[in-house]
Predict the structure.
Amino acid sequence: MWPLTTDRPRGVLALGAHPDDVEIGCGGTLLRLARRFPGLPVTVVVLTGTAQRQAEARTAAGLFLAGCRVDVRTSDLPDGRLPAAWDAVKDLLVAVAADVDVDVDVVLAPRPDDAHQDHRTVAEIAPTLWRDHLLLSYEIPKWDGDLGRPNVYVPLDEDTAHEKVRLLDKAYPSQSGRDWWDEEMFLGLARIRGMECRARYAEAFHLSKAVLSW
């Protein structure tokens, strides 16, 4: 069961199959958390990536989580092959859980129905390890057209939405030449999610279970 609360989190754990997953899926949310809760402990775990891409992930964490106590953990599991490396993914995440579980009550992870096999592998394992946490599943746009109907929204003001895009470009220069990587795509999705929650922009998540402590 996951408690739904507006109190200051003890800590946040953000899981990404690839460098840039976390920032694309919930970079605006991270910016909001960092501004509202200075000194917040945040652990970012990235399971795949070359040395260059891992360095980009560390840069991104510093930019998006300025003022937080940030711990970035990277691995070089096979990109695009995480289902075949299921045991290694499970072992890595079990080790993370054993290390940070006491200090974390919010977990950000991919969606279980994400069309990318690496994302789904992480999403499949996450709720088996973090059962008593607020587990929010972020969305990543892709050519598969797998975006669904989220049920949790984090509104973003205009400055925060644009800052997210600016920091994505700054942190991940290796991705800037991709045909899908541009301001219009990132802000377009954020505008749609904002419209759905009566805000200018927003990031959206899927939540399967919550406990209301009133």
User: Anything to note?
Assistant: Residues 7-209 form a domain with the Rossmann fold fold (CATH 3.40.50.10320). The chain has a mean pLDDT of 95. The chain has one domain: 7-209.
